[in-house]
Amino acid sequence: MPAQPDSLQQLRTLVRECAEASGFDRDAVEQLVLAVNEACMNVIQHGYQGRPGSIDLHIVPIDDGIEFRVHDSAQHVSLDDWRPRALDDLRPGGLGVHFIREIMDEVEYVPVADGIGNSLCMKKYLHRGENPR
Amino acid sequence: MTAALKLNGQYAIVSLSGDIDLHSSPEARRLILDGLQDGRPMLVDLGEVGYIDSSGVASLVEGFQLARQRGLDFGLVGVSPAALSVLRLARLDKVFPIYVSVQERLRMLGSEPGSK
Questions:
Q1: Average pLDDT, whole number, for chain B?
Q2: pLDDT exceeding 70 applies to what percent of chain B?
Q3: A59 and A15 in contact (C-beta within 8 Å)?
Q4: Could you count the other beta carbons within 10 Å of the beta carbon of residue B35?
């Protein structure tokens, strides 16, 4: 999809459909929609910084969960660049990263084949953190 | 998203509905900040919000801060379940004053000592 704010609604519809099909309940589905939306927003705002570009979103069913991969061709970023703000520091911005980390079970940048751009891998499991009994 | 501002007594009431995202939040932000620049206390109605992302939440935070600087009342009313769950995730549900409805807030003000 084009890395533009008006692409996000269509992206959310797609994420919602796939998360529902993977068996997540309504609240979890909405959280996943939020997290993937925030990851793509991050690319639009901070990766491409308003310049034209594209975002590839791959949604893959995995064992007991779902994986989202967000690829871009923007400047290189690392997880160290993500500085979530302290939540008691009341100011706009920095919230998106907090949402992603709070919602997803695993978040990491994976190497890209040609070294251009970024690939953010986020995983969410259906049963992680539940009491096994 | 649709966004509208109307007056109820001295209060500016901003009603937001639909999806408040990176595409639409600049309009919500402008409506909120412009309303506060006029020096009116404000209630933001989130009753019909189906989705709000960090850019939408940031617009509310900016409004809250501007209101505080100017000594103006600022609150959220009728917050939809979708919006409330995002505010909770941001741990802002205890930061913003949240009321059931515009009427409830105005009734509360009417019954406060010293008010007319």
A1: 94
A2: 97
A3: yes
A4: 23
Contact present, A81 and A64 (Cβ < 8 Å): no
Model ipTM value: 0.90
Domains of chain A: 5-125 (3.30.565.10)
Residue B58 with chain A: CB contacts under 8 Å: 92-93, 95
CB contact under 8 A, B23 and A9: yes
CA distances from A1 to A17, A40, A55, A132, B21 (A): 17, 10, 5, 40, 17
Q: Is residue B67 part of a domain?
A: yes
Residues of B with CB under 8 A from a CB of A: 19, 21-23, 51, 53-55, 57-59, 61-62, 64-65, 82, 85-86, 89-91, 95
Residue of B nearest to A41 (CA): B22
Instruction: Give the count of domains, chain B.
Output: 1
Q: Do the chains contact at B22 and A44, CB–CB below 8 Å?
A: yes
Query: Does residue B80 fall inside a structural domain?
Result: yes
Residue B37 covered by a domain: no
